DNA sequence: AATATCATCAACCGCGTGGGA
DNA sequence: GTCCCACGCGGTTGATGATAT
């Protein structure tokens, strides 16, 4: 075979490599990834360069920030609507990538599976098991109404203080009535970027509204739109990531907020 | 303190799609 | 019509750090 073939580098990225990718994007925009290798700038595949840009180097990424409870809610609602269309879901979350959403969802699934598994292995109380099943089933039928989700909480769940947390908890894809959310696309004023349009009534809580309002951030849809021909991208490359500290609840806490014996019953 | 287990994240891989030759 | 290439997406894996025992 070919003995001396240019080796393709894999694994963790070095700062110098990042810089090459950033300079490439500044000059040519986020495209022609394979030219980075063909020009001998990096020994990475174009695919790898693109991924690095999209997941780590793009401006305004919330890397290292935990998902807020509102982001979590949006992911759950959109996952119910779209399925595992992580890239699509990510377009609704400012500063999140499809990889972020995917990782978040998968770890959440694992955590839930483990909790349910442990619970079923240890629980022998079939009567309370029945009760919980009935309640959860009832819960899934009481889909949050488009106005005032919390008001529609079933009374059987009155022992659960935080409806929001429960929404995030058990029913997963069964939780949200697909009819609740209506999506359509329209032509964005920022060019050919199809910004999905949400039925805002599906995001009625103040927190959801705040999250959705963040789409007004001028950087948000402008990352690629700013690149036009020779125009260099005037973006704050590698500037410190957007602050995570918006005062939201750490989503990791949401399992902790339930009575520990609650899971024993499931 | 040492070890095991778990959670998170970065990166790779395979596949599908669209556009141009 | 088909082939090739670039790109994008979803699934998966491996490394690393955190936490529990």
From TrEMBL:
Residues 5-57, 66-109 form the Myb-like domain. SMART domains: SANT (SM00717). GO terms for cellular component: nucleus. One of its GO terms (molecular function) is DNA binding. It is found in: Nucleus. Pfam families: Myb_DNA-binding (PF00249). The keyword tRNA processing does not apply. Residues 5-61, 62-113 form the HTH myb-type domain. Keywords: DNA-binding, Nucleus, Repeat, Transcription, Transcription regulation. This is Uncharacterized protein.
């Amino acid at each position: 075979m070919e003995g001396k073939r240019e080796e393709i580098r894999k694994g963790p990225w070095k700062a110098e490599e990042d810089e090459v990718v950033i300079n490439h994007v500044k000059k040519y925009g986020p495209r022609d990834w394979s030219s980075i290798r063909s020009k001998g700038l990096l020994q990475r595949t174009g695919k790898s360069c693109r991924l690095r840009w999209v997941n780590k180097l793009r401006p305004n990424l919330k890397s290292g920030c935990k998902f807020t409870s509102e982001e979590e809610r949006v992911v759950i609602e959109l996952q119910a609507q779209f399925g595992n269309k992580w890239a699509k879901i990510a377009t609704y979350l400012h500063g999140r990538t499809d990889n972020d959403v995917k990782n978040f969802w998968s770890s959440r699934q694992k955590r839930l599976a483990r909790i349910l598994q442990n619970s079923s292995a240890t629980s022998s109380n079939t009567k309370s098991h029945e009760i919980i099943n009935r309640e959860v089933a009832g819960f899934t039928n009481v889909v949050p109404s488009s106005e005032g989700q919390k008001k529609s909480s079933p009374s059987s769940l009155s022992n659960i203080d935080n409806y929001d947390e429960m929404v995030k908890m058990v029913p997963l894809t069964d939780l949200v009535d697909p009819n609740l959310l209506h999506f359509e696309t329209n032509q964005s004023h920022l060019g050919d970027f199809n910004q999905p349009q949400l039925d805002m009534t599906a995001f009625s809580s103040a927190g959801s509204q705040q999250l959705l309002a963040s789409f007004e951030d001028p950087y948000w849809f402008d990352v690629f739109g700013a690149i036009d021909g020779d125009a260099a991208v005037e973006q704050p490359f590698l500037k410190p990531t957007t602050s995570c500290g918006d005062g939201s609840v750490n989503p990791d806490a949401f399992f902790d907020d339930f009575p520990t014996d609650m899971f024993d019953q499931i």
